[in-house]
Structures are given as structure tokens and as C-alpha cells.
Amino acid sequence: MLNAVRTVMTFAENPEASARWWGDLLDTQAKVEVSESGAVYAWVEHGGVELGFHPADDERNPRGGSPVVYWSVGDVDRAREWLLAAGCEHHRGPLQIEPGRRIAQLRDPFGTVIGIDGP
After folding, report:
1. Which residue from 102, 118, 117, 108 is spatially nearest to 51, judged by alpha carbons?
2. Is residue 31 very low, low, confident or very high in pLDDT (cuts 50, 70, 90)?
3. Which terminus of the chain is more exposed, N or C, with fewer CB under 10 A?
4. CA distances (Å), 45 to each of 10, 31, 35, in order?
5. What gap in Å lies between CA 17 and CA 30, rounded to an integer?
6. CA R_g for the chain
7. Residue 31: strand pairing partners
8. pLDDT tens, position by position, 57-107
9. Which residues lie closer than 8 Å to 54 by C-beta, 6 or more apart?
10. Residue 111's closest CA among 91, 92, 94?
11. Considering Cα of 101, then 44, then 8, then 66, what sign does the dihedral take?
């Protein structure tokens, strides 16, 4: 019934700025849609997955309700250093979760927590 993950949506104070930062980082174009009410939804597509940014709304979709997106990486330490150099901040980890597999979490410049998963 369920196929591959298509979209992961997170909540951000500034969806357009978040998507543009990720677009620059991943060397892909950010896309932006503005509804009739003026709400902005922005996203990037990478590896067949849409990473979307919806306006944070404390009443309906608080930032704490966002999922953590985990990116598969070939080397957790190298990916972590790359993300820190690009403007992310340490959040937690790296943690060994099973032999040969580690994870770490960082916060992008807009406060969204992301994860990296690999050796």
C-alpha cells in the first residue's frame, strides 16, 4: 500500500528563506507558491523527495510538531562538518545506534532540526 516517501514537510518561520538556503546547499532551485491568503509554501526537490517548508503556526502546526528529516550520508563526520560550515548549528549526537550506523542532528539557520544517518 505504501510506496517510497515523496514529501517531508516541516514548519518554518520563513518558508521561502528556508527553501532558498536548502536550494543553495543542495545546488537545486527552490520553488515557492503563494496562496490567495498570502501564505507561502516553499520547497526543494532532491533525490526524488520534496522537502517542503510550511509557515509555522503555533495554533495549527507548531514547530515542535515538525518531523526530523534524516539524510542518508556516506560519512557522518564529514557531512556534519560540511553542514556546520554551511551555517547549521549542533543539536545532538553523533550517536552510535547500531554497529556501523550513526546519527546526528543539527539545526539549519532557520531553526529546523535535521538529521544525518550513516557510517
Report:
1. 108
2. very high
3. N
4. 14, 9, 20
5. 9
6. 15
7. 43
8. 777 665 556 678 899 999 999 999 999 999 999 999 999 988 999 999 999
9. 9, 10, 11, 12, 15, 41, 61
10. 91
11. positive
Find the helix or strand (DSSP H, E) in which 24 lies. Answer: helix 15-26
- Side chain identity at residue 61, one-letter code: N
CA distance 13 to 62: 10
Provide CB contacts within 8 A for 98, sequence distance 6+.
none
Closest CA to 114 of 98, 27, 84, 85: 84
SS3 state at 55: strand
- For 53, which DSSP code? E
Bridge-based pairing of strands 101-107 and 89-98 is antiparallel
For residue 66, what is the DSSP state? P
| Residues written for the chain | 119
Structure confidence at residue 1 as a pLDDT band (50, 70, 90): low
Q: Which amino acid is at 43?
A: W
As given in the structure block, the three cell numbers for residue 27 are 545546488
Query: Grid coordinates in use for 6?
Result: 515523496
